[in-house]
Amino acid sequence: MNGLVIILIGIVALAAGYLLYGGWLAKKWGIDPNAKTPAYTHEDGQDYVPSSRFTVFSHQFSSIAGAGPVTGPILASVFGWVPVLLWLIIGGLFFGAVQDFGALYASVKNEGKSIGMVIEKYIGKTGRRLFMLFCWLFTLLVIAAFTDMVAGTFVGVGRKLAGLDIPLLGINFGQVGFLTELSAVGWEPALERLLAGKMITRTCLLLAWELLRGGTPIASGHAANDVVVGRGAIARVLPVHVFVDGEDMGVVRSDGVIVSTPLGSSAYALSAHGPLVHPKVQALTLTPISPFFKSFPPIVLPADSRIRLETDAAAPDAFLTVDGQEGIPLCGGDVIRVQSLDAGLRVLSCSSGTYFQRLRERGFIQTDGTSAPEHV
Questions:
Q1: What are phi and psi of 39, to 5 degrees?
Q2: Exposure of 152 in the CB half-sphere (CA atoms within 13 A)
Q3: Closest CA to 67 of 143, 10, 148
Q4: Residue 190 to residues 36, 197, 263: CA-CA distances in angstroms?
Q5: CB-based contact 338:301 (threshold 8 Å)
Q6: Is residue 83 over pLDDT 50?
Q7: Residues 304-317: pLDDT tens digits?
Q8: pTM of the entire predicted model
Q9: H helix and E strand count, the chain
């Protein structure tokens, strides 16, 4: 469906909700639009200041655009645009708006007092304390949930979309941002192309990993960049037994082992002197981190390879790290299985530039006197 049609549906639904549902609530609660509010009856130029309805509406709109309306659509987007639209319309009208409208009216009816003070008036001081405690705990929950969803950025969202036929478009608000397509400045033309259906879709390889302890799976997931078995706080060699398609490759003694996708070959694996792999090449890379006496070189493997990494029973503390964002402590004898995912990650692209041009722009290739961008 065309994006403009979706926007028009949203505008009509919200306008109808404001006029019909809002009007019904006003009648139900007995709201008198001509009544003087505390801003007029207690005007003091500081706490009580008369304002236009548009100013009040803008403040109320900014307050409702918080946890639910922001985090809700992010979660709903995993299931498609219809759940997002339903969340914004139904949730905005029947949950967010009525709650904020009710709280605002309750305050106006009680001389402009806060909801906590209103609760104390009708329930008592214990009710007010419980309410304030709830608000404090809820604020912490909102901050934690919002941080968890947003901090993952492009790679984190890519893992959540693994196996779903939902394309992803990234905007680079960071530094290198090799995975992201658009810049934080001048993204508007790309949005027009997106709404017009003129963007190119490319499929990128993803990893599926599983952690077994004592032969029992205890964790699993997906990775867009890499899966790393690395040493923890103790600075000494970590022995990792490597198997590829059941064949014993021996024990790699290093700071860790990286299994990466072609996208991930420009991330941690590159810092460990692994090869850059073109995104159109269906391959995995196996890269040791600072191997002992350079005994194990980086290896490019077929995309359908099944990799098994085993930590030594007497090894020091180790960690399993996924895309540099998820970390799981490992025990001696743990087994990590890694393979490519049949359904990859669909990424939207509007750039006609080549892969090598992107490498030069991001500073990965510097030749003929060219230098890396200032932000690299």
A1: -65, -30
A2: 18
A3: 143
A4: 49, 10, 22
A5: no
A6: yes
A7: 999 999 998 876 68
A8: 0.57
A9: 13, 16
